[in-house]
């Protein structure tokens, strides 16, 4: 049933004076509560009932609790949308006090404030019964909305709840709407007794576009720069759960807040990945046959880390025939969405979605490396052209592809990352060009002998995404060790003063210094590089407790030499 038709039916219900029960049924999170509250807000002047009460069954442990809550939440429908909750409660308890006073004049004075419920509950079971009977008596001709039916307490059966609904309609002349989640697995009693209680049932099934627009109105903090892209992907996945859509916007906003300066390609990949991962994480339970689980996606990523093939990933689930079929369906769906399982950005986002928050520092580190590769690719036009030639046709042009890669890798030997260069080597070996691959390895090492850091397989600046080719990795390690020279501590800190990565051997060398030696070293620094060198030492100390303790001790002793030095050291947050 369309949204407009559902709203028409709700309006007819709201205008009616006749006691009746209306059920609005729909999938979890599609906005049943929103469409109801929106409708009554728009039409409150047309409601003939003098009292309205909205009640969530969540946490209510008995039928008496439900009746009490209906009473306490009662308000004049004409003032819906105004901040008058406290006044409504006081008004309800004053009315209760008048009724109760006829039964027990001794404690009427306790009923003048909003805390009367607590007073009465403390006076004993007999008083509680009087309270419940009087509160129930005041529920006549009330418009009531019951929400969160599927979250009812186990101590309240749906049979008992529907019995109360029937009582309120038949005996108290109330008009009642029930908001029902059709995805709930605990509706047997409802199905059994609904014909005796429910007068009309509406099926609320808004489009994904409508749900997205509603979520946009409800999540006002959203960055709308990429709204159309976000909307297009969400609609393609048919995401209608408004809560999930709001979570998607929240995660995207958080991620984009720290990635504003990166290439558009990176930001678009982040948006696409967050939507797909949230869809898997939050929506899988609603359609397990068609929506992949996050567990499947994690295994898919792990599989890609070892072998870049979807054929293997498709069979990673349990060895049941039905499960295999489901895995293939999931894999095909992810393929159709261009889901980049192999990308490190996806792994960071996957872990973040699973934890419920974006790990900003890790995301920035990955994006820095990704941006570096994009910058290098934009410079290394020959290598980029080789990949375009490889991917661009099904022609039998292996020799042309090999020549293009040899040319491109020769051009990029002093600019590409180890990861990028390694990918070219792997392709040459796939095309049975092992000799040419070995030749390219020798070329890379000879070109970078004077730039020792470009031979370092542990450098996150040049090898953030890892090396696929083992021959290349072994050759780099050998060349790096061969060129090793014992640097002084100051030379190490000077070299690392403008970098974000380091060798473990550097840490060990600095950790061998005492606090007094570090103090003398720091005091020897001068000029604008002083701060950078000390920050480099603190960076190294982050992975070694002894070095951190000695570094802090040395700096604190320097700070104790004078108030001026103490002020100078404040920037290090010791």
UniProtKB/TrEMBL annotation:
A Pfam family annotated for this UniProt entry: KAP_NTPase
Gene3D superfamilies: P-loop containing nucleotide triphosphate hydrolases
Domain KAP NTPase: from-to ranges: 10-205
Domain of life: Bacteria
InterPro entries listed in its UniProt record: KAP_P-loop, P-loop_NTPase
Name the UniProt record assigns to this protein: KAP NTPase domain-containing protein
Organism of provenance: Vibrio coralliirubri
């Amino acid at each position: 049933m369309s949204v407009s038709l559902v709203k028409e039916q709700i309006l007819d219900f709201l205008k009616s004076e006749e006691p009746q029960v209306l059920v609005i049924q729909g999938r979890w999170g599609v906005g049943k509560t929103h469409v109801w509250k929106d409708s009554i807000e728009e039409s409150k002047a047309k409601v003939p009932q003098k009292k309205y009460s909205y009640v969530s069954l969540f946490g209510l442990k008995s039928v008496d609790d439900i009746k009490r809550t209906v009473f306490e939440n009662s308000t004049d429908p004409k003032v819906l949308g105004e901040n008058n909750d406290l006044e409504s409660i006081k008004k309800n308890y004053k009315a209760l006090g008048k009724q109760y006073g006829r039964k027990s004049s001794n404690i009427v004075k306790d009923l003048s404030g909003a805390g009367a419920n607590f007073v009465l509950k403390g006076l004993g079971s007999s008083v509680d019964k009087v309270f419940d009977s009087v509160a129930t008596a005041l529920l006549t001709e009330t418009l009531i909305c019951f929400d969160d039916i599927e979250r009812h307490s186990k101590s309240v059966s749906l049979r008992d709840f529907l019995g109360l609904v029937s009582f309120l309609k038949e005996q108290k002349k109330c008009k009642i709407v029930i908001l029902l989640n059709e995805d709930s697995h605990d509706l047997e009693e409802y199905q059994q007794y609904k014909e005796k209680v429910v007068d009309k049932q509406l099926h609320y099934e808004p489009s994904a576009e409508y749900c997205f627009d509603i979520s946009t109105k409800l999540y006002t903090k959203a960055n709308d720069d990429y709204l159309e892209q976000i909307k297009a992907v969400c609609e393609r996945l048919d995401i209608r759960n408004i809560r999930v859509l709001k979570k998607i916007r929240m995660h995207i906003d958080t991620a984009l807040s720290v990635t504003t300066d990166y290439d558009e390609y990176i930001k678009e990949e982040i948006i696409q990945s967050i939507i797909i991962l949230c869809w898997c994480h939050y929506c899988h339970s609603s359609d397990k046959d068609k929506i992949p689980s996050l567990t499947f996606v994690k295994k898919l990523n792990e599989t890609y880390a070892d072998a870049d093939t979807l054929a293997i990933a498709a069979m990673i689930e349990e060895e049941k025939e039905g499960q295999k079929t489901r895995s293939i369906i999931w894999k095909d769906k992810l393929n159709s969405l261009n889901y980049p399982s192999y990308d490190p950005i996806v792994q960071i986002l996957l872990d973040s979605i699973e934890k419920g928050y974006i790990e900003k520092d890790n995301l920035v580190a990955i994006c820095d490396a990704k941006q570096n590769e994009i910058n290098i690719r934009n410079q290394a036009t020959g290598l980029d052209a080789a990949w375009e030639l490889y991917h661009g046709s099904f022609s039998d042009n292996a020799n042309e592809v090999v020549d293009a890669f040899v040319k491109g890798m020769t051009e990029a030997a002093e600019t590409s990352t180890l990861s990028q260069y390694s990918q070219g080597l792997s392709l040459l070996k796939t095309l049975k060009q092992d000799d040419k691959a070995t030749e390219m390895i020798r070329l890379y090492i000879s070109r970078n002998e004077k730039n020792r850091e470009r031979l370092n397989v542990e450098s996150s600046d040049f090898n953030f995404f890892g090396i696929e080719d083992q021959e290349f990795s072994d050759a780099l390690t050998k060349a790096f060790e061969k060129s090793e020279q014992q640097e002084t501590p100051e030379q190490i800190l000077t070299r690392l003063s403008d970098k974000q990565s380091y060798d473990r051997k550097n840490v060990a060398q600095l950790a061998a210094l005492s606090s007094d030696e570090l103090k003398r070293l720091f005091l020897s620094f001068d000029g604008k590089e002083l701060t950078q060198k000390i920050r480099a030492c603190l960076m190294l100390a982050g992975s070694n407790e002894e070095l951190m303790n000695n570094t802090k001790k040395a700096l604190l002793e320097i700070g104790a030499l004078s108030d001026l030095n103490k002020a100078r050291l404040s920037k290090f947050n010791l």
